[in-house]
Amino acid sequence: MREQRDQHPAGPRTGQHEEARAERLARRFAEEFGHAPDGVWRAPGRVNLIGEHTDYNDGFVLPFAIDRAAMVAVRVRRAGEAGHDVVDLASTYAPHGAGLSRARFAAGGLAPGSVPGWGAYPAGVVHVLAGADGADGAAVPGFELLLDSTVPVGAGLSSSHAVEVATVVALNDLLGRGLDRPAMARLTQRAENEFVGAPTGIMDQSASLMGRAGAALFLDCRTLEAEAVPLPLAEHGLAVLVVDTGVAHSHADGGYAARRASCERGAAALGVASLRDVPADADLGVLDDGTARRVRHVLTENRRVLETVERLRAGDVRGIGRLLAASHASMRDDYEISCPELDLAVEAATAAGAVGARMTGGGFGGSAIALVPAEGADRIAGTVTEAFLRSGHRAPDAFVVVPGEGAQRVR
Ligand code: ADP
Ligand code: MG
After folding, report:
1. Which residues of 125-147 are buried (b: 16+ CB within 10 A; e: fewer)?
2. For residue 34, how far is its CA from the centre of ligand 2 (angstroms)?
3. Quick check: CB of 101 below 6 Å from ligand 1?
4. Mean pLDDT over residues 175-196, rounded?
5. Which residue(s) pair with 64 in the sheet?
């Protein structure tokens, strides 16, 4: 199912103004809950530079955290406080009216499906966190949380993981759990898979947790071994332009799960535990045509990630352009997860002078990225917008993103 989303104005960009933003959020928290928060944390959204649908195949990805983030002010309820077990959530994102979007549930005894709407993301984190150390649900006390995010919702930039990661880093600090970043990545993945019910991989939360300013995160999704690979865009006169098509993508729909199932079928038929283990000279002719194309995307995409990393290590940022283009073609033709708007964004950006472009994220909608000459970013964005309008599509939202720092406490 594809539909148009309400485009939520993302508000001011995170980055240099973060402390002021945290200050404002803490003030709003005090107005809302009647006392100060214990602290403020931020967790960024991400774009994936290359390596799509490789994460759940134990493969390689190369995302970067962006300069747009979910920010949460949190206060844990004290022992003996009335409603000690109650979690109170509020978000400034209220698409269907003014005021805050609220959710409320008991921290103990959470079960999948018991919290509707966006509250399911923080609730999933509580649910898994409570079991992570073998304790029961009462191990996580109630808390108050006020969320404000500049990650556009439903654009494929992982606004949902930003919410989960902001929640887990805050609770990890406040409850003194001492979890490291890979452990928090696995925990939020379980929250998403087991509680929210989306069969997503490990990439998005890893990027949000482990991203580094000025770098992309080269992640081995089998071991969670991570390396920050310098991405000196500005030095090379380049920028990454995001084109949010406004077409809603949803992991809960069948497409994502169907691709995962194809990969599992392919791996089984080839006699390997996961597509990561397929030898370079494997004969895909034993697979039916559809499965063979899905498998070919994953195998070639893993190679493209490795080649992109090599190029970047060699300081050849421009050289990754053709790999981005090849990645898009593979997703369009072999993996079949693109859509007319994403293809148009890629074609129009490339025709207007992008060094390379591809859809990013799960597919079927969401955003494309284009590696563009920095001084041409506005012009290329304008040209892409014209192409959309000419083709009868709604104008996309196009903006430059900068590789930023991963999740952290800001106050
Ligand atoms: P994406 O992660 O690509 O933005 P998803 O459909 O996976 O898209 O996640 C979007 C969902 O995440 C929203 O429908 C909402 O439930 C939740 N969400 C994200 N940001 C916020 C926010 N600022 N406030 C409340 N909920 C949010
Ligand atoms: Mg998401």
Report:
1. bbbbbbbbeeeebebbbbbbbbb
2. 32
3. yes
4. 94
5. 47
Determine whether 333 is an active site residue: no
CATH 3.30.565.10 is right for the domain spanning 12-231: no
Pocket lining: 399 vs ligand 1, CB cutoff 6 Å: no
Looking at residue 96, its pLDDT comes to 80
User: Counting atoms of ligand 1 from 1, which one is nearest the CA of 361?
Assistant: 3
| 241 alpha carbon, distance to own chain's centre | 16
Marked catalytic residue, from 55, 148, 204, 397? 204
In one-letter notation, the amino acid at residue 349 is: A
Query: How far lies 317's CA from each of 36, 64, 122, 401, in Å?
Result: 45, 15, 37, 16
* 272-305: pLDDT as tens digits: 999 999 998 999 999 999 999 999 999 999 999 9
Instruction: Round to whole Å and give the CA distance between 183 and 129.
Output: 11
Query: How many C-beta atoms surround the C-beta of residue 61 within 10 A?
Result: 28
Burial of 11 (0-12, 13-18, 19+ CB in 10 A): middle
CATH no. of 234-401: 3.30.70.890
Kindly give the distance from the C-alpha atom of residue 40 to the centroid of ligand 1, in angstroms, as a whole number. 19
| Per-residue confidence (pLDDT) for residue 226, from 0 to 100 | 95
| pLDDT at site 132 | 56
Q: Residue 48 belongs to what H/E stretch?
A: strand 39-50
Question: What pTM value is reported for the model?
Answer: 0.93
The identity of residue 341, as a single letter, is: E
Does residue 1 carry a pLDDT above 60? Answer: no
Let me know: does 73 contact 140? Beta carbons within 8 Å: no
Domain ranges of the chain: 12-231, 234-401
Among protein residues, the one with the nearest Cα to ligand 1's atom 8 is 154
Q: Is 48 in the pocket of ligand 1 (CB under 6 A)?
A: no
In three-state secondary structure terms, 306 is: helix
Mutating to test ligand 1, I would choose from 1, 163, 342 the residue with most ligand atoms within 8 A of its C-beta, which is: 163
CA-156 nearest atom, ligand 1: 3
Q: What residue type is 291 in one-letter code? A: T
